[in-house]
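Try this one yourself first.
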């Protein structure tokens, strides 16, 4: 399986998992069974006025990848590129550009290709921490960091958008750093950003064809270099110890998935204990926790493990934003290694910040 299949698979399966869980974020498993039938979620159900609709997890993941492309093509500080990409996402959520762009930015309109994708302009229960901290950047222009945290949040809003950072480097340490730095733009608690670093490394290893169990070990080697890593380490170890095919009860025994460390550990457990991506995607959303985020994160894992071709076509065919996700993935693959770099228009699609 080549990198293209794994990377496209990672993004597409993440979006499918997000869409499968979109209608039942935080519903109890009993409520999910009332809504979807005795087997719980087995297919897309209506959410946000349609079928196959993605949520903020996928939207923000797309802006993460856009930032990496802009920084790779034009140079410059990639963490600042991520900040600006998230400000453009904030604008898609209804915040006027003049309030979203930040005081140092004087552009009259947001630029680049991604912001022209009309379907992105839709609010899908955006996380309050992400929204609030990006609004604060819009007012102050102060870029938060691990050393200058703006809050003590360990919500899963950082880790849920981090999968594309896997492409940034072949070096696990560099990928971990950028994963953590990207999440620290909105989440100040170590479990809010170390989860993101660990997740990006796991995806990086999966894209290289490393089996998940070993990919997790590589991420743990990086994780333990950072202060206050214990909580995330404990959560990952619990996922590795938990045996047997995923049931709602087993998945929930690891947590609710609304915070970084359990969103990652629940997703890792499901991916480790299933034999195909489609079974994993359903197991990742059928529990009482943050179904769209664990669906999205687990999808990013299993898509990279099994590749695009293994994904159920009835889901791919009805997935919102499929074309935009594929185009973004192909542009990224061209810039980050395989394929030919498209043409000079790539600079107008992905301008400098
Ligand atoms: Mg969501």
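Now uncover the answer:
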């Amino acid at each position: 399986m080549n990198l293209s299949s794994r990377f496209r698979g990672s993004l597409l399966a993440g979006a499918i998992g997000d869409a499968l869980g979109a209608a039942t974020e935080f519903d109890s498993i009993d409520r999910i069974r009332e809504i979807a039938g005795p087997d719980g979620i087995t297919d897309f159900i209506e959410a946000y006025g349609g079928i196959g609709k993605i949520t903020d997890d996928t939207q923000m993941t797309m802006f993460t990848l856009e930032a990496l492309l802009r920084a790779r093509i034009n140079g410059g500080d990639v963490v600042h590129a991520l900040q600006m990409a998230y400000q453009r996402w904030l604008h898609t959520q209804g915040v006027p550009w003049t309030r979203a762009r930040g005081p140092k930015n004087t552009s009259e309109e947001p630029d680049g290709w991604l912001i022209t994708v009309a379907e992105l302009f839709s609010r899908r229960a955006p996380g309050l921490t992400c929204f609030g901290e990006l609004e604060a950047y819009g007012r102050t222009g102060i870029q938060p960091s691990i050393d200058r945290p703006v809050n003590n949040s360990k919500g899963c809003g950082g880790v849920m958008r981090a999968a594309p950072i896997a492409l940034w480097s072949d070096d696990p340490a560099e990928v971990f750093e950028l994963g953590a730095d990207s999440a620290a733009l909105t989440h100040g608690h170590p479990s809010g950003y170390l989860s993101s670093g660990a997740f990006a490394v796991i995806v990086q290893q999966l894209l290289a064809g490393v089996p998940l169990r070993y990919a997790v070990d590589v991420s743990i080697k990086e994780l333990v270099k950072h202060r206050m890593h214990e909580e995330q380490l404990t959560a990952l170890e619990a996922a590795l110890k938990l045996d047997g095919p995923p049931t709602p009860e087993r998945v929930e025994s690891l947590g609710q998935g609304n915070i970084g460390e359990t969103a990652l550990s629940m997703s890792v457990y499901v991916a480790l204990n299933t034999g195909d991506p489609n079974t994993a995607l359903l197991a990742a959303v059928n529990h009482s926790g943050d179904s769209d985020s664990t669906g999205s994160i687990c999808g990013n894992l299993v898509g990279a493990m099994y590749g695009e071709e293994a994904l159920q076509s009835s889901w791919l065919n009805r997935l919102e934003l499929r074309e935009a996700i594929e185009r973004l993935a192909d542009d990224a693959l061209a810039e980050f290694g395989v394929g030919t770099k498209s043409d000079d228009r790539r600079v107008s699609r992905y301008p400098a910040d």
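Discussion: The chain has a mean pLDDT of 96. Residues 65 and 164 are 6 Å apart (CA to CA).
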